[in-house]
């Protein structure tokens, strides 16, 4: 391990705080477990230290990438080996030197240890990644300049030619080599990025770079800030959540009702008390899946959340006997038809945006949307129905139509409201969250973790 600024205890405390700030949950007990683990390992062995921290602090595979980035910042590897040889000159290398470096990288891409790859990456960052800053004595470090200089992706043809050496192309051997090279390129890119982050942290401070280096884990990403790439990853999370939500609502439904009176068993039991029916017996309730109605705000202010809820709606179609979905901005339209079984969810969302009648003037109006829903679709609600409302309760200072909402809720078996805004922002500006919350229980639902917690409360 290289010499570090501050004590090991300071590093440990800072590392744990950085994990929490990045959305990786670490309890006090787990932090103490990690500290105790350091008493029984060889601290000079960096990978043993990494493994001890991972075993005590990382509870989900999704947390591991962010953990590794922060570990490399707080406990960086030493810069030795090739980096000690090729410091100094920052002028563009000659053709012969660059060819030599690329040939060396080609060998590492097919066969190298992590230590060898890390040392070469450190040398290349020192060689190509540094640019002078406007401030005196400061340097800027960049990964892209290293990758542009060496262009590892262009080495595939020469590597295949050297490794296969005249053997038939297109077979298993070529496929294996291609996989090795692709994996090697990814390892090199990660090693370069790690060393760039380390160098920036040494100049700007670990805490500063840590805040921007790690994206929150998938279940902690705010629905209002998800990207298209995040939504693609979230699709895999939606179906298990839909199954759990359906199961929880079914259990709640069964607990909340009794079956019909079992007259025969009741009379038979009354014979023991002289014909007086002291104990009544009921038939078990007939099992069935509950019905679900979803009312979803699709306005621009919650567009990312709306995309996620539409994914959830699509998944819920397979879990309930009957699902009807409605979208609204300042008027409401049924969107169930866009989510038929077997349809592509991306295509369904595209058609919904272009064809659904959810907009009159383009400004969100919950009150008018509720009134239109009551006029056109009140028959969708019944004693077996669960109503799920998804939206931020911001209605551009228009009347909230609370009486209409009360009337709609009275028709249902149960109703829930999921709000993607942080609770401290409720009732600010044009939000009427608390007013609606007096009619429908409202829960903060900003990410998958909170949605999961909400589902657990339905037991």
Draw up the topology in text:
Elements (H helix, E strand, L loop, with lengths): L7 H14 L6 H10 L8 H12 L6 H11 L7 H4 L9 H16 L3 H15 L1 E3 L6 E3 L1 H8 L5 H9 L7 H33 L1 H8 L14 H28 L7 H8 L20 E7 L5 H14 L5 E7 L3 E3 L10 H11 L10 H12 L7 E6 L11 H9 L3 E6 L13 H5 L4 E3 L3 H9 L3
Parallel strand pairs: 3-4, 3-6, 6-7, 7-8
Antiparallel strand pairs: 1-2, 4-5
How would you describe this protein?
It is a single chain. The chain has 459 residues and is of the alpha/beta class. It has helices spanning 8-21, 28-37, 46-57, 64-74, 82-85, 95-110, 114-128, 143-150, 156-164, 172-204, 206-213, 228-255, 263-270, 303-316, 345-355, 366-377, 402-410, 433-437, 448-456; strands spanning 130-132, 139-141, 291-297, 322-328, 332-334, 385-390, 414-419, 442-444. The chain has three domains: 8-74; 82-215, no CATH class; 224-456, 3-Layer(aba) Sandwich (Rossmann fold), CATH 3.40.50.410. The chain is built from 19 helices and eight strands. The strands form two sheets. A six-stranded mixed sheet has the order 5-4-3-6-7-8. Strand 7, helix 18 and strand 8 (442-444) form a beta-alpha-beta unit. Residues 1-5 and 79-92 have low confidence and may be disordered. InterPro entries: UCP010256 (IPR011195), Uncharacterised_CoxE (IPR008912), vWFA_dom_sf (IPR036465). Pfam families: VWA_CoxE.
């Amino acid at each position: 391990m290289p010499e570090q600024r501050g004590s090991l205890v300071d590093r440990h405390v800072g590392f744990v705080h950085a994990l929490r700030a990045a959305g990786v949950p670490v309890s006090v007990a787990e932090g103490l477990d990690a500290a105790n683990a350091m008493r029984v390992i060889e601290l000079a062995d960096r990978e043993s230290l990494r493994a001890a921290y991972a075993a005590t602090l990382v509870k989900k595979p999704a947390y591991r990438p962010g953990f590794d980035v922060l570990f490399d910042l707080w406990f960086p590897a030493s810069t030795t080996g090739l980096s000690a040889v090729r410091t100094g000159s920052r002028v563009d290398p000659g053709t012969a030197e660059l060819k030599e470096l690329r040939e060396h990288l080609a060998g590492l891409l097919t066969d190298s240890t992590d230590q060898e790859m890390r040392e070469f990456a450190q040398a290349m960052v020192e060689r190509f990644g540094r640019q002078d800053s406007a401030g005196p004595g400061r340097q800027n470090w960049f990964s892209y300049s290293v990758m542009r200089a060496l262009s590892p992706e262009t080495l595939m043809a020469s590597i295949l030619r050297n490794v296969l050496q005249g053997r038939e192309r297109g077979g298993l051997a070529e496929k294996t080599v291609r996989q090795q090279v692709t994996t090697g390129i990814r390892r090199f890119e990660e090693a370069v990025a790690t060393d760039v982050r380390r160098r920036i942290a040494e100049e700007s401070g670990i805490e500063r770079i840590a805040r921007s280096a790690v994206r929150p884990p998938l279940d902690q990403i705010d629905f209002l800030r998800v990207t298209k790439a995040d939504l693609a990853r979230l699709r895999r999370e939606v179906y298990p959540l839909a199954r759990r939500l359906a199961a929880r609502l079914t259990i709640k439904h069964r607990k909340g009702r009794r079956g019909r009176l079992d007259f025969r068993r009741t009379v038979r039991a009354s014979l023991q008390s002289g014909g007086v029916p002291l104990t009544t017996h009921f038939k078990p309730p007939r099992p069935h899946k509950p019905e679900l109605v979803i009312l979803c705000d699709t306005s621009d202010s919650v567009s990312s959340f709306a995309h996620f809820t539409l994914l959830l709606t699509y998944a819920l179609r397979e879990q309930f006997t009957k699902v009807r979905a409605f979208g609204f901005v300042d008027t409401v339209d049924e969107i169930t038809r866009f989510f038929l079984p077997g349809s592509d969810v991306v295509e369904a969302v595209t058609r919904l945006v272009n064809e659904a009648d959810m907009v009159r003037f383009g400004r969100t109006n919950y009150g008018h949307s509720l009134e239109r829903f009551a006029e056109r679709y009140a028959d969708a609600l019944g004693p077996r129905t669960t109503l799920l409302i998804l939206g931020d309760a911001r209605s551009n200072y228009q009347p909230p139509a609370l009486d209409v909402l009360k009337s709609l809720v009275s028709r249902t078996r149960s109703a829930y409201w999921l709000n993607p805004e942080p609770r401290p922002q409720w009732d600010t500006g044009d939000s009427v969250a608390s007013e609606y919350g007096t009619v429908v229980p409202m829960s903060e639902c900003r990410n998958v973790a909170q949605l999961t917690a909400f589902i657990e409360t339905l037991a």
